[in-house]
Design brief:
This protein has 12 helices and 18 strands. By secondary structure, it is an alpha/beta fold. Bound molecules: flavin-adenine dinucleotide. Flavin-adenine dinucleotide binds next to helix 1, strand 2, strand 3, strand 12 and helix 8.
Length: 427
């Protein structure tokens, strides 16, 4: 039995995690994906991201798990230090990262590179361009690009992150869909001044948290500096003006001790400076007509959740699978994609909203209390119970989305869509 596909060509906006993962799977399922990325080349910078639970299984099915493991950050642990740099307490390995066996951690840029290298021979990538306008006439989508080019696709997918351009064009102003969680995050690379190897050092100040870490291998000579500060109201600044954001960060940490003045000076030099709100993206629906969103564009869970990358991988897997199962019928596929994903996404968003409040501590005495806990934790009889509670919460969030088998996702050779056999029905 053959099934003529109703949709075949798919434009994906964004080449980070969700975009290339979706392109890989769509190609395997017999579609023809094109990826457009605004950056002039693949963005390989970034921070370490956890891959846990269901996302590990997605990596296995994508055929990239061995490479993910080979690029693991291999962090040994972390410790809190006081303003003089003295260790207050070491986080036990079983609590640091809340990981269980099989979970892994990789730099976002390494994962993006692995996915890109797996797809670049089969998938058309267009760098340095962006969608300027979309017109969905019910039979296809006419796309005008900033470069002036115009093309028509059967479907368009926004995999372009929290500040999704596709979402803005198809659904409207970003402010309708974002929920600010009361804090800002900044991250940038700098010289490894603290001489860290596979180690993360935290320093807490009222309403602020600073973390400096360095992973292994080629990345050992640099450190990542991560700054979080709470702010009751959103700040007003131009998101394209990096110099203004560097000034806002410097103002937020002005007068603070420990290594902060040196680290802030490093921020001024950093070329990969990142600064953003900690926010959720909450939408009633992730598709309209022939346009659909995936990953952070659809449902950013914020860095507070530590599951955004996992959800981007899972979302790509489910969306590609449902499109294949529905033989390209986007209405059926988009509805099924949302049914599978939404409960797990919402669980992760609740988790993020709770955790965002706990990232910083409001006063000196509360910090002292937290540090006393960190200091005594390794010696308390409840250490294992606390570790288990942290792990159980994280694992519940990381395993919240059930994975079906759609066929082809394990790397079988794609058949041409017109002659494609019936895709295996979802379990
Ligand atoms: C500091 C920090 C720490 C984090 N830690 C973790 C963690 O521990 N675990 C975890 O799972 N997740 C973590 N995350 C979240 C994770 O990075 C995201 O959830 C994940 O990268 C989402 O992937 P994505 O592909 O949906 O979007 P993104 O990674 O945001 O990628 C969007 C892509 O779209 C491109 N783009 C943007 N605009 C356009 C346009 N107009 N046209 C074309 N392309 C465009 C961008 O350049 C980018 O390449 C963290 C995030 C941050 C910021």
């Amino acid at each position: 039995m053959t099934h003529a596909p109703s949709s075949k060509t798919v434009l994906i906006s964004g080449a980070s995690i969700a975009g290339p993962a979706l392109a890989l799977l769509l190609h395997r399922h017999g579609f023809t994906p094109t990826v457009v990325e605004r950056a002039p080349e693949l963005r390989t910078g970034g921070y370490k991201v956890d891959i846990r639970g269901t996302a590990i299984e997605v990596c296995r099915r994508l055929g990239i798990l061995d490479e993910v493991r080979a690029n693991s950050t291999d962090m040994d642990g972390g410790s809190y230090v006081d303003a003089q740099g003295r260790t207050i307490g070491v986080l036990p390995a079983e609590i640091f990262g809340g990981r269980t066996e099989g979970d892994d951690e990789i730099m976002r840029g390494d994962l993006a590179r692995i996915l890109y290298e797996r797809t670049r021979d089969d998938v058309e990538y267009v760098f340095g361009d962006s969608i300027e306008a979309l017109h969905d006439d019910g039979h296809g989508v006419d796309v005008a690009f900033e470069s002036g080019r115009r093309r028509r696709f059967d479907l368009v997918v926004g995999a372009d992150g929290m500040h999704s351009n596709t979402r803005r064009l198809a659904f409207g102003d970003e402010r309708r869909f974002t929920r600010y969680l009361g804090a800002y995050i900044s991250i940038f690379s700098a010289p490894n001044r603290l001489g860290l190897t596979r180690w993360e050092t935290y320093h807490a100040r009222p309403k602020k948290l600073i973390s400096v870490y360095s992973t292994a291998g080629e990345q050992a000579h640099t450190a990542k500096n991560l700054f979080v500060f709470s702010a009751p109201e959103e700040l007003s600044y131009d998101r394209r003006d990096t110099a203004a954001q560097k000034r806002l960060l410097a103002e937020a940490f002005a007068g603070d001790d420990w290594e902060i003045p040196r680290l802030i000076a490093d921020a001024a030099e950093a070329e990969d400076f990142y600064f953003d709100t900690i926010s959720l993206v909450e939408m009633d629906r992730w598709s309209t007509g022939r346009v659909v969103l995936v990953g952070d564009a659809a449902h950013c869970v914020s860095p507070a959740a530590g599951q955004g990358t996992g959800l981007a991988l899972i979302g790509a897997y489910v969306l590609a699978g449902e499109l294949a199962a529905a033989h390209g019928d986007h209405r059926t596929a988009f509805a099924a994609y949302e049914r599978v994903m939404r409960p797990g996404v919402e669980l992760n968003q609740r988790f993020a909203a709770r955790f965002a409040k706990e990232m910083t501590v409001s006063s000196r005495w509360k910090i002292a209390l937290r540090m006393a806990m960190v200091r005594t934790l390794p010696r308390t009889p409840w250490k294992n119970l606390i570790a288990k509670k942290i792990r159980d919460d994280i694992q519940r969030a990381a395993n919240a989305i059930p994975l079906k088998e759609y066929g082809h996702e394990h790397g079988a050779r794609p058949e041409r869509h017109g002659a494609r056999r019936h895709a295996s029905a979802p379990a």
